[in-house]
Amino acid sequence: MPPIKRTKFKLAPEQLLEMFYWLKLIRAFDERLSILVRQGQVRSGVYTGIGQEAIVVGTCYGLRQQDFICPLHRDLGAFLMKGIEPRVMMAQMFGKRTGLSKGRDSALHSGVNDLGIFGNTSMLGANLPVAAGLALTFKMEQTDNVVVAYFGEGASNVGDFHEGLNFAGVQQLPVIFICENNQYAYSVPIERSMAIDDVAERAHGYGFDGVAINGNDVLAVYQATQGALARARGGGGPTLIECKTYRWHGHSEHDKAFYRSDEELAMWKSRDPIPTFTTYLRTRHLLDDAKQQEIELKVKTTIDEAVEFAMTAPEPVPEDALTDLYA
Amino acid sequence: MRELTYLEAIREALMEEMRRDPKVFVLGEDVGAYGGAFGVTQGLYDEFGEMRVIDTPISESAIVGISIGAALRGYRPVAEMQFADFISCAFDQIVNQAATLRYRYGGRASVPIVIRAPSGGNVGGGLYHSQNPEAWFIHRPGLKVVAPSTAYDAKGLLKAAIRDDNPVIYFEHKYLYRRVKGPVPEGDEVVPLGVAATRRVGRDVTLLTYGAMVLHALEAAEILAKEGVEVEVIDLRTLLPLDKAAIFGSVEKTSRVLIVHEDVKTLGIGAELAALITEERFDALDAPVLRLTTPDTYSPFSHVLESAILPDTTKIADALRRLAAY
Fold first, then answer.
1. What CATH fold (topology level) applies to the domain B197-325?
2. Which residues are within 8 A (CB) of A252 and not within 5 positions of it... i.e. 6 or more apart?
3. Which of B101, B131, B106 is CA-nearest to residue B264?
4. Which long-range contacts (CB under 8 A, 24 or more apart) does A39-42 make?
5. Which of B119, B177, B245, B289 keeps 20 to 30 A from A131, CA to CA?
6. From the candidates A105, A140, A165, which should be mutated to test the interface with B, based on the most B CB atoms within 10 A?
């Protein structure tokens, strides 16, 4: 099996600025949600990916509509990048009727087939066999569409991880497995949940390549993803990309995360993916103050409008609790 | 009409549906060239090839998860659990992933999968090759559950299950595979889900059952007829959703109900049926609703032990006599 191609996948200046926009939007969305939870405006179901945005942006950027993503519970940004309007996503988090699940669930348990988004349950890793099933249909149809499936290092310990990746390896399916290794499964640090250093090692047991990369470097994530995409689209089978990262907030917004030190958090905050990328853009004169302000204003306007939409959106009607159980 | 065994009828339904609709495919353990542990899928691999008759690793959870993924792209997978006993390994994918999907997607998607599960005892299978886990799934809105007792229904219900847009658990009873043979139409005859069948008409007692117990129920009804008690035997066929109209119609006529099932007693489907009847047709009853089931234990290997716990013709006849005399 050939290794991932290290050739750089060129991005035009406007594409780099688009990535910058997405990083900012996703960060702002999660930060606003965090505030809304503390204000009691959003009841629960908020699992922010603050600090991990480079993974979503680097993997989703440039995907086709026909490609499928199977995000995990922190990947709200992946829903946005794959085409769900911020206002609809916000209505979902508010439990409103105009959200994806008509108020039956907040969180990311809902999907949209036409946009290539699968919504998993709360059972982590349960999306991985589903990802294999989606990829199986691409193989059957001999198309070059790809499935991108996400999981945490914690979920790599669940049985569905093994069953899903093993089947994908056996069938050489067009699927990329993205591990968001944020060091903690809720409160349990990685060294207490696995006896190896890199989740990427696990890929070798399934007969495909696994690589560990800096998950806070959006361009590194993008390059690795493009290599894996090219392989999968060309019939070369799956790849596991382990993105090392860190979640700044607790597991959920209700978790104070006392299980980790201030020093550790501060160290990871110094690796914030957004300033890193901002510096990259500025040193190459792709971003100046005016452009940055323009993007930041666009982000703020988008989030404000989404919150306004969600707050004034209709509540579900009681009957909605009993419908859509059967087709 | 030509006759097929129950097993052949299942195979024919699979063949015909795969020929009719290229989106139908089969996956499971040993279902490929080997033809399945019981031979149900024999011949499919030769006709449809390895991309539509997929041998999987021993990964029940993935078998269902993969089916769900394929269903979301418009396919109609038919997954085989080698034994219904192994379905517990796929429980999460069935009850949390498949059953809830349409609900949590706001009605914008559905999961048209069929999970075939060879179930039931009286075959010396022991603890892990004899189970009747239907009650677990009847308890989950979003699923449908069927359990045919005849070759005719085995084919017609499987066709209906494959064409249904919801996840359907199809319990095929191992005891019936080669013991039951009957007329099966060659054409495209579908037996609708959610409709019970009256196997014998009677005025004195209603007997509600399904699966292999239908055979014993009919034998017992024959014995009771000679004693002057006319038993109406209703084969539920679909366990979720229940055919309430058929059940209540018979109860109103006979005023006495015996429920027979091979699953254990506590919170088996008999409990739901008894509650439903007393709740909605209390005035029609002249006797308590009785249940004859496997007692709350496991299915033992020894013939002596298995016979001791399974409902059979003699035990059903005794229960019917008690009920008729009440």
1. Rossmann fold (3.40.50)
2. A44, A45, A46, A47
3. B131
4. A41/A94, A41/A311, A42/A93, A42/A94, A42/A95, A42/A106
5. B119
6. A140
Mean of the pLDDT values across residues B133-159? Answer: 98
Q: Which sequence spans correspond to the domains of chain B?
A: 3-183, 197-325
Q: What angle do CA B21, B23, B24 make, to 5 degrees?
A: 75
Active site residue B129: yes
User: Edge to edge, what strands does the sheet with A209-214 contain?
Assistant: A68-70, A147-152, A175-181, A239-244, A209-214
Chain B closest-CA separation from residue A158 CA (Å): 11
pLDDT band at A2 (very low <50, low <70, confident <90, very high): very low
Looking at the domain that runs over A13-246+260-309, which CATH code has it been given?
3.40.50.970
Q: Please report where in the chains the tokens 């109609």 appear, as a residue.
A: B76
Decide if B68 touches A, using CB distance below 8 A: yes
Number of Cβ atoms within 10 Å of the Cβ of A326: 17
Mapped onto helix, strand or coil, the DSSP state of residue A219 is helix
Does B56 lie at the interface with A, CB-CB under 8 angstroms? yes
Q: What is the 3-state secondary structure (H, E, C) of B21-57?
A: CCCEEEEECCCCCCCCCCCCCCCHHHHHCCCCEEECC
Query: Per-domain residue ranges for chain A?
Result: 13-246+260-309
> CA neighbours within 13 Å on the CB side: how many for A133?
35
Which chain B residue lies closest to A171 (C-alpha atoms)?
A: B56
Counting Cβ atoms within 10 Å, is residue A279 exposed (0-12), middle (13-18) or buried (19+)? Answer: exposed
> Are B67 and A133 in contact (CB < 8 Å)?
yes
Residue of A nearest to B77 (CA): A133
From the candidates B129, B173, B216, B261, give the one annotated as an active-site residue.
B129
Cα separation of the two ends of chain B: 42
CATH of domain B3-183: 3.40.50.970
Q: Residue B257's closest CA among B265, B266, B247?
A: B247
pLDDT over 90 for what percent of chain A? 94
Average pLDDT over residues B107-123: 97
Contact A123 B92 (CB under 8 A): yes
